[in-house]
Amino acid sequence: MKGKKIMFVGDSLSMNQYESLLCMLHAAAPNSNITRLAREWISFWVDQDYGVSIMLFTSHYLVDIQQDKIGRRVLNLGSVSSGNLWKQMDVLIFNTWLWWYRKGPKQGWNYIRDGKIISKDMNRMTAFTKALRTWAKWVDSSVDTRKTSVFFQGVSPAHYNGAAWGRPGVRDCSNETKPIAGGLTQSVVPLALKVQQDIIGSIRKPVHFLNITAMSYMRKDGHPASHNGLGGMDCTHWCVAGVPDTWNHILSTILIHSGKRGKESKKLPRQTLAHK
Predict the structure, then answer these.
(1) What is the pLDDT of residues 179-193, one digit of tens each?
(2) By C-alpha distance, which of 244, 227, 196 is closest to 95?
(3) In this structure, are residues 96 and 133 in contact, taking their beta carbons and an 8 Å threshold?
(4) Cβ–Cβ < 8 Å for 169, 114
């Protein structure tokens, strides 16, 4: 990866994986000459010795939020203007899902645009599906996958409902110290994951789907809970070192394998499953 540019694009779960990768790289090369930069929406980590740039681009929805003439924030399900920057990278790891059902002060927009129609709200799963299709069309039309490797991080499960691990009435992960016994069953597979699989499977160009849901679902013990430095209960994000390190082991294995195979990397499976 010498001289390459790697960018995570997404929400705070992308940040989780980005920070995990930085920690892993620092552990592997603790004396490297590092430059850190931060700009609006983007964080940079540049290893001057190896010429590797690792970046985080914050984009909760992947599609655009635009301001209209009177200052209202409009979520445009059909626009991906940041793509001009993204496609300059050598590796892109995308993620979106966490923010799609947020309302009130945590909602990142005031109105939503679907084609020519602007409305106050719409079915959130429908909106998520339309936005992901817009992103998929952008990949097919704009990304040169001979230069740029594209990944998509699947749904990262939260653990606020103890019924999922046989403890009805439990409402957080604060006292959990062991993984869930058994795997993710089809009856509780998130609908968002199915949407992601269908849309990414329809992309003509090679996209690696990091299906992290099943393996992460078992790790109810892997969240910071109240030990997050911010107060409150966090059973959504992950401790580092922890679960995101495994996501990065999978990512790095694919990158190394692709590099060794060169042109034959096109033969890699379109979806990378991580069920165990």
Answers:
(1) 998 777 766 789 999
(2) 196
(3) no
(4) no
